[in-house]
């Protein structure tokens, strides 16, 4: 009897329940991205899924932060600075052409302020968090880690740009994605990545790598499948 009760207690430990929760959230993320690929690649469904794009990004961010542990003042500073710097750089980019080039946003990404969707600030925050998490425990030097995280973000942007243009998220002058866009992305990303490294908060997250992989696969497939 004692042995049976011990086995029962082991099976219902908080750790076991927690990891079941992780697996459930991973399934939700994968299903959500697969449905998104289907919706974006079927012409008759595309307009409806374009409208849902802001909710897709917000849901991904919420699911990720369910598993964030370090909710301290440093983390809130990171949230504010990453959103503010990312968003501010986009406002400057839209109105001056620096540092990314000449482009403008369409209506797909939702509510805009200063001609830039508010969701873009969330996008910067999410991508810095995901790419920074790759190196936070693997690379000790803050500047090297920030550079590597920024490089990952540039590679993601290479995948995102053609898809975003086809789906009317934004449009480039003369329909040409300039090299300055990727240089500017690296520069702004490096600043925020360095802030991410310097601020002291728990950077472990059981969903970050999985969500990053899903995002990369999502845009790889859309690049292949979108007409």
UniProtKB/TrEMBL annotation:
* Transmembrane regions: 24-42, 48-67, 74-98, 118-136, 143-164, 176-195, 207-226
In terms of superkingdom, the source organism counts as Bacteria
The record, for InterPro entries, names:
CruF-like
Q: Which UniProt keywords apply?
A: Membrane, Transmembrane, Transmembrane helix
Protein's recorded name: Carotene biosynthesis associated membrane protein
Which organism does this record belong to?
Belliella aquatica
- Lineage of source species: Bacteria, Pseudomonadati, Bacteroidota, Cytophagia, Cytophagales
């Amino acid at each position: 009897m004692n042995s049976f009760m011990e086995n029962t207690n082991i099976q219902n430990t908080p750790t076991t329940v927690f990891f079941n929760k992780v697996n459930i959230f991973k399934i939700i993320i994968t299903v959500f991205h697969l449905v998104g690929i289907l919706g974006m690649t079927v012409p008759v469904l595309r307009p409806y899924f374009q409208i849902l794009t802001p909710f897709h990004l917000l849901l991904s961010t919420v699911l990720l932060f369910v598993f964030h542990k370090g909710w301290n003042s440093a983390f809130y500073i990171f949230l504010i600075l990453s959103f503010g710097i990312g968003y501010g750089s986009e406002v400057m980019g839209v109105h001056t052409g620096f540092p990314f080039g000449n482009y403008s946003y369409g209506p797909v990404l939702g509510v805009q302020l200063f001609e830039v969707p508010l969701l873009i600030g969330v996008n910067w925050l999410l991508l810095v968090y995901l790419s920074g998490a790759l190196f936070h425990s693997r690379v000790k030097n803050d500047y090297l880690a920030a550079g590597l995280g920024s490089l990952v973000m540039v590679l993601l942007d290479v995948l995102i740009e053609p898809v975003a243009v086809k789906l009317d998220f934004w449009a480039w002058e003369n329909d040409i994605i300039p090299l300055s866009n990727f240089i500017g992305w690296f520069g702004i990303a490096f600043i925020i990545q360095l802030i991410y490294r310097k601020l002291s908060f728990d950077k472990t997250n059981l969903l970050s790598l999985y969500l990053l992989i899903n995002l990369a696969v999502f845009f790889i497939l859309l690049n292949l499948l979108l007409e």
